[in-house]
Amino acid sequence: MDTTTFTVVGMTCGHCVGAVREELSKIVGVTDVDVDLDSGTVTVTSATELDQQTIDAAVDEAGYEVAR
């Protein structure tokens, strides 16, 4: 198992959390997505290491962006 933690910018409500969780959960190999709305922190657990571009694309699809 691999765990990746990052911050997503722009989430303001439960709908935002759900959108980010839904898109990240679609990535092949992802087993869990934990989103903390207050801090913007997202922790993704997956069977293998995830490519940063894949994560960025999923968050972008949800309408947000990964903080740099």
Describe the structure.
This protein has 68 residues and is of the alpha+beta class. The chain has one domain (2-66): 2-Layer Sandwich (Alpha-Beta Plaits), CATH 3.30.70. The protein is built from two helices and four strands; from the N terminus they run βαββαβ. The protein has helices at residues 14-25, 52-62, and strands at 2-9, 30-36, 41-46, 65-66. A four-stranded antiparallel sheet has the order 2-3-1-4, covered by helices on one side. Helix 1 (14-25) crosses helix 2.
In short:
With 68 residues, this protein is an alpha+beta fold. Helix content is 34%, strand content 34%. The chain has 2 helices and 4 strands, in the order βαββαβ.
For the largest beta-sheet, the strand count, sense and barrel status come to:
4 strands, antiparallel
How many beta-strand elements? 4
Q: Distance between termini? A: 24 Å
Strand content: 25-35%
Please provide the ordered H/E string of secondary-structure elements.
Answer: EHEEHE
Oligomer: single chain
Give the number of domains.
1
CATH architecture: 2-Layer Sandwich
Poorly predicted runs: none
- At the first level of CATH, what is the class? Alpha Beta
Helix- and strand-based class?
Answer: alpha+beta
Largest beta sheet: what is the strand line-up? Answer: 2-3-1-4
Number of helices: 2
Overall shape: globular
| CATH topology group | Alpha-Beta Plaits
- Radius of gyration of CA atoms, rounded to a whole number: 11 Å
Mean pLDDT: 97
| Helical fraction | 25-40%
